[in-house]
TrEMBL record:
Belongs to the 4-hydroxybenzoyl-CoA thioesterase family. This is 4-hydroxybenzoyl-CoA thioesterase. InterPro entries: 4-hydroxybenzoyl-CoA_TE, HotDog_dom_sf, Tol-Pal_acyl-CoA_thioesterase, YbgC/YbaW. It comes from Methylomonas koyamae. Transmembrane segments: none annotated. The keyword Hydrolase applies.
Length: 138
């Protein structure tokens, strides 16, 4: 099962750049964009009523990053307010692919594509995404 979602709406999450997010040059350290992406995906799931700890306890599943493709276009700096988007663009039996962006006002700073895999929390092997999640996403 593969479902392409080209016209799905993007979820947006506000992020402020803290001093700890920056490097010696005063710009956001490259790896921290991945943390911003992670927060937006977590809040995306939460917006549908799914808490990851509850999914682990009740459904026996966890989501892990399988792959990331990222492009850095412009720097973000200390104390700026950013928006981080998360949009599901593909649903497979055991994975979701997100298109993500970090923007400052209308300016795109970073883009990425993140594939997360659904795993059995005990065995750490791929497990089908629970139907309750798929129903909400479709």
């Amino acid at each position: 099962m593969t479902l392409e979602l080209s016209n799905a709406a993007a979820f947006n999450w506000p992020v402020r750049v803290y001093y700890e997010d920056t490097d010696a040059g005063g710009v956001v350290f490259y790896a921290n964009y991945l943390k911003f992406f992670e927060r937006a995906r977590t809040e995306f799931l939460r917006s549908y009523g799914f808490e990851q700890d509850v999914l682990m306890a009740e459904q026996g599943v966890i989501f892990v990053v399988r792959s990331v493709k990222i492009d850095y276009l412009r720097p973000a700096r200390f104390n700026e307010q950013l928006a981080v988007s998360a949009k599901v663009i593909e649903i497979k039996k055991t994975s979701l692919t997100f298109e993500q962006t970090v923007t400052r006002q209308e300016q795109i700073l970073c883009t990425g594509e993140v594939r997360i895999a659904c795993l059995d929390a005990q065995t750490m092997k791929p497990k089908p995404i629970p139907s309750v999640i798929l129903e909400q996403l479709n």
